[in-house]
């Protein structure tokens, strides 16, 4: 994978100076981009190794050899999605940081074509994709823990606030409402969910003993 | 499957005094029980009209005529699940009511075989099942709104607290943690999620203006 492209899903122009690994990386990017495009067009049920290979302009034996099956392709898409330098918002306020995070989740879950929902749906059917999806979420939540640590440092939250359950509480309503309930009609969902988790945390709901902090 | 098996999915013994509609209702019950049993054994991917008909001891033309396809079968299972007299807990405390509700969700999402997760997974693939799943959730949340109204009446929550977003905030972490993250290791999940939502609500996070009530 090279670094010149503007968009995340654009196929790169051929590199005039191939380096070791350059062609393999380019093939991988082409194949993974094709997986995302096929998922967006046809969903998991329409995803086949043949269609991916055709779209990527790669021989299908190459795809079978390297990724084996659709589950392997999806797992690699998810692993590649985590190999970035994403960092959680840092606004100086817990509620604002969580709202920014939720805005990103909201955008991902409501984007057209619905690639992220298709990946999540696929994780219900491919154990390999499910593992990769959980690795990705785990990594994302780990990168968000600093949001909670900073809020504790600023005195917004009581010491000993558990970061992970607070982050899950802040973000879970988006997955539930948008993905499971299929309802994207509430314009306040991202902020309200962030605010509710922040207030609950300030009131001590995520400390080990559950006693209020400054609430 | 024959009808002598114990457990909640047992087909009824033949009624010695058939009434009008009794046979149709019995056939429906047998077929829907067979859907649940097949889902538990094989998941959505293994679900076929033929297998359901065979397990229910019903001719497959009957199943095709009445339910048409797997989506129709799943939708009817979900509609039948909602046709009960379930009522939300009424303990006199918002946190306890929500914890009781979450305990039920926790049990449903972690039961073996995983029938409820299989139904939810199916709703990602069958629009008809998705519609029925949403009808069921909508009905359940509607029945839970009284929990919030009672808490407002007792002075636990500020007037104008919106019931539905509070209920979603209380329950969503269970779906996220158990179903999407696939992690059932936290014994405090049900209570902590209930408590966090209750505290956020007491602090005014679910009123229209978001101002604190008595927090």
Summarize this, please?
The structure is a homodimer of 215-residue chains. In chain A, helix 6 crosses helix 7. By secondary structure, the first copy, chain A, is an all-alpha fold.
Outline the secondary-structure elements.
The structure is a homodimer of 215-residue chains.
Chain A: H1 22-42, H2 49-56, H3 60-67, H4 70-82, H5 94-110, H6 115-123, H7 127-153, H8 163-180, H9 189-202
| Biggest sheet details of chain A | none
Q: How many E strands of chain A?
A: 0
Instruction: State the helical fraction of chain A.
Output: 55-70%
Inertia-based shape of chain A: elongated
Q: Which oligomeric form is depicted?
A: homodimer
So how many helices of chain A? 9
Largest interface summary = A-B, 43 and 43 residues
CATH architecture of the largest domain in chain A: Orthogonal Bundle
Gyration radius of chain A, rounded: 20 Å
H and E order of chain A: HHHHHHHHH
For the record, the CATH class of the largest domain in chain A is Mainly Alpha
Q: Mean pLDDT across all residues of chain A, rounded? A: 89
Flag low-confidence runs of chain A: 1-16, 211-215
Tell me the structural class of chain A: mainly alpha
Q: How many domain regions of chain A?
A: 2
Distance between the termini of chain A: 50 Å
Beta-strand content bin of chain A: under 5%
Q: Give me the CATH superfamily of the largest domain in chain A.
A: Tetracycline Repressor, domain 2
CATH fold call of the largest domain in chain A = Tetracycline Repressor, domain 2
């Amino acid at each position: 994978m090279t670094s010149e492209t503007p968009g995340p899903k654009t196929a790169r122009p051929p590199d005039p100076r191939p380096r070791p690994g350059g062609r393999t990386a380019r093939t991988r990017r082409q194949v993974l981009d094709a997986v995302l495009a096929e998922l967006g067009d046809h969903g998991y049920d329409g995803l086949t190794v043949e269609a991916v290979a055709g779209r990527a302009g790669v021989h299908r034996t190459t795809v079978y050899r390297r990724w084996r099956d659709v589950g392997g392709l999806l797992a690699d898409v998810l692993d590649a999605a985590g190999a970035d330098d994403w960092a959680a918002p840092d606004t100086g306020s817990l509620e604002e940081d969580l709202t920014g995070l939720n805005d990103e989740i909201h955008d991902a879950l409501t984007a057209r074509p619905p690639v992220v929902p298709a990946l999540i749906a696929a994780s219900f059917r491919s154990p390999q994709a499910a593992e990769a999806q959980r690795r990705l979420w785990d990594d994302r939540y780990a990168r968000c823990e600093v949001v909670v640590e900073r809020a504790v440092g600023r005195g917004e939250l009581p010491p000993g606030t558990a970061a992970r359950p607070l982050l899950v509480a802040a973000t879970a309503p988006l997955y539930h409402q948008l993905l499971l309930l299929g309802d994207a009609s509430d314009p306040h969902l991202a902020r309200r969910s962030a605010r509710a988790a922040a207030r609950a945390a300030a009131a001590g709901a995520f400390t080990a003993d559950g006693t209020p902090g400054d609430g």
